[in-house]
Amino acid sequence: MGKWIWSYIKKYSFLMASGLLLTVIVAALNMVNPTAAGQIVDRVIRGGEKSLLLTFVLIMISATVLKSIVRYGYQMIFEHVSQNIIRNIREDLYDHVQKQDFSWFDRSPPGNVMTLMTGDLDAVRHFIAWVLYQIFENIIVFIFSIIVLSSINWILTLAFMIIAQVIIFLVLRFKNKIKPSHTKVRDQFARLNTRVAENIAGNRVVKAFVRENYEMERFQKENMTYRDTTVDNANVRIAYLPVIESIGGALPVILILLGGYLIINGHLTIGELVTFNGLMWAFTQPINMMGNLVNDAQRFAASADRLWELKCRKSKIVNEPDAVAAGRVKGDVEFKNVSFKYNEVTVLENISFKAESGQTIGILGPTGSGKSTIAKLLCRYYDCTEGSVLIDGIDVKKYTLDSLRRNAGITMQDVFLFSDTIEGNIAFGKPDATMEEVKKAADLAFASDFIKDLSAGYDTIVGERGVGLSGGQRQRIALARLFLMNTPIMILDDTTSSVDVETEEQIRDSIASETSGHTTFIIAHRISSLEKADLILVVENGKITDRGTHKELLARPGYYRHVWLHQNGYEGDIQTNHTGE
Ligand SMILES: Nc1ncnc2c1ncn2[C@@H]1O[C@H](COP(=O)(O)OP(=O)(O)OP(=O)(O)O)[C@@H](O)[C@H]1O
Ligand SMILES: [Mg+2]
């Protein structure tokens, strides 16, 4: 896991190394003033070498100034490097998320992904920008101070070391306890985010069903749990950190008692005591900070774990090694004994049919019967569990994903529009389309009339800041988007369900003319949408229960005729046998 982040750091290894070198210089400069102060006491004040005073003072001033400059330098370096590293990681992760397949998105609430991309990445940034060099600087300062102090008086240094040992022991225990706690806080934060994101996205439903209070309660529950986990986390910190810090407070006492004793016995000079005193911070600071740094490092580790999990999740729908990039396909489609399961639940069973290039295939069936799933298998959003899906006689897995999806276009049932202009939305699949092409596609989808009525026409921004569109309008934009893509295979999943009957009729003519020469799949609940199809498949409960043309299907009892009679007002005629079950 660490390796993965390390691979990003490595790119900046020169800058990082320079930063760390500057840290060492600062640590060394930290030794200057206490040593000089000790010398002033021993040699100037007590020894009477007055001429040296100015030299020592100058040394101290230059060391202080130099230290500030160098510290400024490495802080800039670490800030710069960490921001760049995070930018790179974020970019790669975003790319990684983008490439995930449908089944991942089915299971990943946006709030969780948002937490990864913001909070978790920030914990990593904080670690690189601050924690990393702080740990390094403190270790170096600690080592330097031990060297300087033990060269002055090893007994006193040893006494300091014993205290340090106790503290290190406590810090290690703290480290083991705080990490699981940080993981809990982080995961609960993700859940809280998920609630918020879902509530915003589904706010209309919440309002429509007057469930504000219920949603509030659910949020409060998550919020309370979040508070509890953070309080637990704080409890662990409170139990350890003050103890660690107060043990550090024992050092001055040791210094005065033991130092005084050593001076009385002539083993230590007053100047050396002054140096000791001056360097005591170099000893206590790392100790005091150790707890906090370990805390931050463990927070980083918890976030890095989650990021690593995401990084390890490989999309199952990927280009096969021998996949070829197809040009424009002819458009023959065949499903051969296709079965499909969504996590062990069989959704499609033994689906077989053939569509020749240029044909229109209608798919009709009750809701939840598996119609959209058939379309999703054709575009390879999922891979079938058994059997194969062929385009022009070649398994869809043998096409590169890009080329497959450039050949098989779809308007999905739940239309998604971006907060972009109408033009941008229509041209989404063909960004280089001219305005004429966009307008033509909109004409064909019978969208141009309402677009013209919008305040800024094709430049009107949909969504957040702009206008809202009706369900039927959205469907027509989606249809225009597909027409513009002009793929040899077109799938219209419930595309005209929200459009009034009259407009639908016109769109139908449009579809017939625009999709001629294209293999077209029309998935619908209204028989009128697909009655002209060359072949109509009746899908019930994941199986094809009947197939034929409108005429053939109408001639025999079954789901199709049953639906047709209903939709045409013959509700009394129920003596037809429903064979679809
Ligand atoms: N992402 C998914 N994960 C698990 N099960 C799913 C998923 N999507 C659909 N299903 C299930 O698969 C079955 C078929 O769904 P599908 O969307 O293909 O139905 P449909 O025929 O298109 O229905 P509708 O007419 O309502 O659009 C349903 O029982 C549904 O619950
Ligand atoms: Mg569907």
Give an overview in words.
With about 575 residues, the chain is of the alpha/beta class. The protein has 2 domains: about 1-310, ABC transporter type 1, transmembrane domain (ABC transporter transmembrane region fold), CATH 1.20.1560; about 335-565, Rossmann fold. Helices cover about 65% and strands about 10% of the residues. The protein has helices at about 1-10, 15-30, 30-45, 50-100, 100-105, 110-150, 155-200, 205-210, 210-250, 250-265, 270-310, 370-380, 400-405, 420-425, 435-445, 450-455, 470-485, 500-515, 550-555, 560-565; strands at about 335-340, 345-355, 360-365, 385-390, 395, 410, 490-495, 520-525, 535-540, 545-550. The strands form 2 sheets. The protein has a 6-stranded mixed β-sheet, sandwiched between helices. The chain has a 4-stranded antiparallel β-sheet with strand order 2-1-4-5, with helices on one face. Strand 7, helix 18 (about 500-515) and strand 8 (about 520-525) form a beta-alpha-beta unit. Helix 6 (about 110-150) packs antiparallel against helix 7 (about 155-200). Bound molecules: adenosine-5'-triphosphate (ATP) and magnesium ion.
